[in-house]
Amino acid sequence: MCPTTSEPARISVELKRALEFYHGSVEDLIRELIRVLGVNETDRRALEIVLLEDEKSTTPGRLAERLGLTAAGVTIMLNRLEKQGYIVRSLHPTDRRRVIVMATDLAAHRVREIVVPMIVESYKMLLSYYNTAELEIIADFLTRAGELQQIHRQRLREVHPYSKP
């Protein structure tokens, strides 16, 4: 006869499975978005950052910091995105020494055309399954989980890469 599993342990196992399923599904979805947009993962993430900024613009330095890239790596990435018509670079209106990166209408249109219907569908579905109090708990959980991921990312940035065999 198997010993009974405690409720917190059972929930912990369910939560682990659910998070693994969710992360895998998101990675699969992102892979398809990358394929449709014709970009790589770093370029997609850069577009996401630019499109989600309040002013719909950012700087190469902020992109480098958020993506963990060097200045040269960001320049190469921005060259690719500019060639595809997804971003434009211009001089800052008040500080001509700084460069501003903005998403183009093409990028905004394509992302809006593909992603917005999925977001709307997701919200409708979640709102039909959960009440306000449950949604507040879910939002709190996701916020805390995201904050934890940022802490983990920062820790990893401080780790030297393994040497090649």
TrEMBL record:
Ranges where the HTH marR-type domain occurs: 8-147
Pfam families found in the cross-reference section: MarR_2
Transmembrane parts of this sequence: none
Stored InterPro entries: HTH_MarR-typ, MarR/SlyA-like, WH-like_DNA-bd_sf, WH_DNA-bd_sf
BP GO terms, sorted: response to stress
GO molecular function per UniProt: DNA-binding transcription factor activity
SMART domains (UniProt xref): HTH_MARR
PANTHER family reported in the protein's UniProt record: TRANSCRIPTIONAL REGULATOR, MARR FAMILY, TRANSCRIPTIONAL REGULATORY PROTEIN
Name assigned to this protein: MarR family transcriptional regulator
Source organism per UniProt: Nocardia coubleae
